Amino acid sequence: MKWVRLLAALLSLAAGNAQAHLMPAGHGGLRVDEAEVMSVVSIPVAVLSGWDDDGNGLLSLAELNTHRSALDRQLAQRFRLFDGDAPERIIFQDLLFSDVRNEALTGTDHLILMRRSQWNEKIHQLRVQADLFAKAGPERELMLSAARAGTTEMTILRADRPGHRFFRDAMAVFGDAVRNGAEHILLGYDHLLFLLTLLVAGTGWRYWLATITAFTVAHSVTLALAATGMLTLPGVVVEPLIALSIVVVAIGNLFRVGVERRQRTWLIFACGLLHGLGIASALDLVGLEGTGKSLTLAGFNVGVEIGQLGVAACALTLLAVVRRHGSASMQEMAARACSVFAALAGMGWFIARVAHAG
């Protein structure tokens, strides 16, 4: 059957990154074929209501079976597809555990929504509207891809931007990716803190330019390699290492570890490669195809650089003012205070991420 093939294709997109999971948390995929769409979307149970009988915050198999009809009705209202203004006709819908091996026993904080939708005519303007966002944490956004006829597009939905229209012209796709990239880096406090820790370690525009260039080129390289599948590491490995890189650089600042400028540039480049993997794991380009993938990668990278350079410009302006008008002791105190804060924050992130991975 056609819809079974659609489902198999969607699950194959998720399999590379999901390991034992049908779909990673915070992700979803839509596969379009003529007048049908097959949806596979990870849903945080915290945004649903009326199911937590034991009050432990995890949805058990018994709770799912008891409240399945009510949850189906909620999701029919809170995740909707349209072709232009024409609403979907739901032909099939099911709710499954994400980790099929373990969560039936332990309970889950995410459900997988599987849905088959139909329209009377071929789909031209696929549009999604979602109300599935928590106020904080990873559940505050949904990374959603849509595939049709050899091309795939990706968008990031949030509470302040809950809708999106797929398969528009190239400039619209590129513009969306630029915006998503800029928003991602501005919300990536670990990346920004790492950059600031690098900048306060030295003075002078020559040092600052070399630092920004090395960091920018490095994470652009790994983002491109990860997008092509040539270099990938799971987020549970990359994210703790990113936090640890902040600690290492901050401690180097505090104890004045002797490193020549050329060696430091290569160290910054190496850390930039690592941070690029973190950006790539957040973007998750695996499974994207055709021009949609190229436009998304290029636009997202441009957005990241715009956001990063904007923050760097503000930081460098402040550092230049301190350098020009402040005493040497004031400059030293500001640099050490920033490094102490970075070391503590990085260690906190490292511990939290290792604990979460475990």
TrEMBL record:
UniProt cross-references to InterPro entries, sorted A to Z: EF_Hand_1_Ca_BS, Put_HupE_UreJ
Coiled-coil positions: none
Secretion signal, residue range per the UniProt entry: 1-20
Lineage: superkingdom: Bacteria
Official protein name in the record: HupE/UreJ family protein
Species of the source: Noviherbaspirillum galbum
Cited Pfam families: HupE_UreJ_2
Record has Signal as a keyword: yes
